[in-house]
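We include the pair:
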Amino acid sequence: MRLAIRLLASPSTLGSSTRLSPAPLALLPPIPLYRRILRAHRKFLKTNMRLLGDEYVKSEFRNHKSVQNPIHIVGFLNEWQRYAQEVEGESWHGTKLDTEKIDKMSDQQLGQLYELMQAIQKKSREDPEGAI
């Protein structure tokens, strides 16, 4: 009898917040994630944005191929998966980077971000009609 009551019981929501966040999605392995990003670029981005994005994604995945730190790998995959979702959902237009993320970046990452910004500005100057 007690077993049946235990099976019918459900977890209590007392004391929990009413705004529960959705369960995080499982991380994709590197190669399927890489392919997903390139597919999203092909489907959702203009040609000049796609070329720049593909080049950047390829170099980032190539540079992180030999990373051994599991925490770094999970963070890398998590951010790239979030990026792929934003590109697929087209929710990235006109959004700015979080100041929290910028504060957490290393000097090397800030340098890469600056170089990316310069490349985008250069491409938009070269092709003003297809501006990024």
Observations:
- Confidence is low (pLDDT under 50) at residues 9-13.
- The chain has six helices and no strands.
